[in-house]
Amino acid sequence: MKHLSRRTFSSRMALGAAALWAGPHLSIKGATPRQGQGRSLGVALVGLGSYSTYQLAPALQQTKHCHLAGIVTGTPAKAERWQAEYGIGKDHVYSYESFDAIANDPDIDIVYVVLPNSMHAEFCIRAARAGKHVICEKPMAVSVAECDAIINACREAGVKLSVGYRLQSEPYTQEIKRLVREKTFGDVRFVSADAGYISRGNPEQWRLDRERSGGGALMNMGVYSIQSCIYSCGKNPIGVSAQEFSTRPEYFRDTDETITAQFTFPGGVVGQMMTSHNANANRLYGSCEAGWFELQPANNYGPLRGNTSKGPIEFPHESQQKLQMDDFARHILEGSPNRAPGEMGRRDMVIVEAIYRSIGDGGRQIAIDLPEGYGIVKE
Amino acid sequence: MKHLSRRTFSSRMALGAAALWAGPHLSIKGATPRQGQGRSLGVALVGLGSYSTYQLAPALQQTKHCHLAGIVTGTPAKAERWQAEYGIGKDHVYSYESFDAIANDPDIDIVYVVLPNSMHAEFCIRAARAGKHVICEKPMAVSVAECDAIINACREAGVKLSVGYRLQSEPYTQEIKRLVREKTFGDVRFVSADAGYISRGNPEQWRLDRERSGGGALMNMGVYSIQSCIYSCGKNPIGVSAQEFSTRPEYFRDTDETITAQFTFPGGVVGQMMTSHNANANRLYGSCEAGWFELQPANNYGPLRGNTSKGPIEFPHESQQKLQMDDFARHILEGSPNRAPGEMGRRDMVIVEAIYRSIGDGGRQIAIDLPEGYGIVKE
């Protein structure tokens, strides 16, 4: 049973993360970064894979309220290249082993953890203990228990926490949230969201290795579909049923390939989602009493495309990662809303676990018991 | 259990239809209508509700190969209005009781049954026995057993049979079938189709009365989603799971309100569909190895709108019903393909019954055992 063993694995990881609490690192309480308006916060990227290389570092050249100030990598050659390209001093370069010394680096305010999913909890907790604000790339972790550990560590350390949900800062997505909030088309009755791509690369990549990813398409792309369904109706689901499809088991040996799920929301909203590592899809759709809205694509790095029953949605394109990191910096500096707080990432992991549970139970409807509005940011 | 009682009802109806075989009406074998190219076939509409009034009768003013030649109605005042509007002689006006005398009406070649679903089987069988070619409005009947009875009656009488699937004759839909057949975007990997509208009218309407409709959204709109999924990949499903959602039970007292279903197809294609009497949706989408196609709307009376990863699909708008009835007339007159044969309607009812069965079984995956290509028309 793929999912039972996944859950077993997740539990083990959660224990691993929790064990860190009592580990050798001292929690540096009160050592929060300097506050103040107008200042630009220093960001250290942990993990210099393709997302850091091609998205985050370039975005940090455009941000107004934060900038690239440090790197954490296990590969010395990468460190050299990045130092040269971005003028990063040797004092701001860390390995995974030396990482905790970042506590003493006053130029680093924010640590952005861009590692494989199973390493999020460990490094987010270590970052919090080092007194740094934390951005945890999505999915937040590989279990709800790990999300709890991250949230608690940040609370204890008095640092801010957000999840790398770039779309929450993105204007098309903001517009969908506004249309829902203001009931432009009346009440929402049906939402639908798909997020997937065809994985053809190295079958040894970490995303296809459950030990490191915690799961397949659902963990990687499915969280977009979950997010889309939620902000397309402004509510958290109260129930879910789900199905898993395996058509290339020789390639997807260890992780879910394609998953469909159906949601019930309060007030009679019905939702459906698909996520896949074996099919391209990228859409959200909301059907309302008196109209509809759609983004397609809805989840890529942009430009997105939007349409409604009243006409197209159009915004100039900007780097989503720039908007996201500036939003978080402004949250720290100015107290503006945290658009993707840890609770949001935790909520999505509650839903992910319910989806896996339904699949394990042959598609049975699973109740989702979240406090009303939990993880939803009101703006 | 709503679905158990629906099945019980369907079985009873099927027996009712089958009982007609041995009934008092003589089968007029060999009394097939006149054949010959260039001739326009006479069509009698059975049931003068809104679909006949606002779609079929106007379309029959535009058809080239057939024309409105008779009517069958239970309402004398309607008969008078139609006679005046369309110049229909009194000899071509029938009541449901006098209907069988249509056998002796040489001006009627085709009988189009546009009655509530539970009456399709009876009147299609009576039409076949009267020696007339038959168009049966969708859904074909309220059970597979009834579909069998209709198909057998037409075969025995030597008359042609088609189902009122107007989209099978419609150019956007034909284009989707071509893109799939010619693998323009490579193999299809995922298909998705939604078909629904918000029912707000009289709760006593026949569509919301299971005795007359045989079911709710799935029977009425769901067959479009089923059709869309099938022609978007060119294959019949081999398995299905499904869920039912009820949010306005006070209005939808007797029939399904919203249903979602997930399909598996041969060769690893995954499909999902939604159908509803409580939400607007109207789309088909196919995700392929190297591109995608979409119709939205996909199922209304047109104009449809189509898009693909290579650009838009665009055709001039024509009455779908005109195209459909002319196609069937040409099939009779010239032997061109029957684009919506009885087997296609029966196949969809096999899938409808599997969906209801999965819902009754808590969403369990149900195998669908259809001969390969059954009901799929190769052109």
CATH class category label of the largest domain in chain A: Alpha Beta
Number of structurally distinct domains of chain A: 2
Note the main sheet of chain A.
9 strands, mixed
- Spans where pLDDT lies below 50 across 5 or more residues of chain A: 1-35
- Taken as a percent bin, the fraction of beta residues of chain A is 15-25%
Please report the total strand number of chain A as a whole number.
15
Order of helices and strands of chain A: HEHEHEEHEHEHEHHEEEEEEEHHE
**Oligomeric composition of the shown chains:** homodimer
Q: What is the CATH H-level superfamily of the largest domain in chain A?
A: Dihydrodipicolinate Reductase, domain 2
Shape of chain A: globular
Sequence of strands across the biggest β-sheet of chain A: 14-13-12-11-7-10-9-8-15
- How does CATH name the architecture of the largest domain in chain A? 2-Layer Sandwich
- What structural class should be given to the helix and strand makeup of chain A? alpha/beta
> How confident is the prediction overall: mean pLDDT of chain A?
92
Greatest interface and its participating residue counts = A-B, 35 and 35 residues
| Radius of gyration computed on alpha carbons of chain A | 20 Å
What key attributes describe this structure?
homodimer, 379 residues, alpha/beta, Rossmann fold, Dihydrodipicolinate Reductase, domain 2, 10 helices
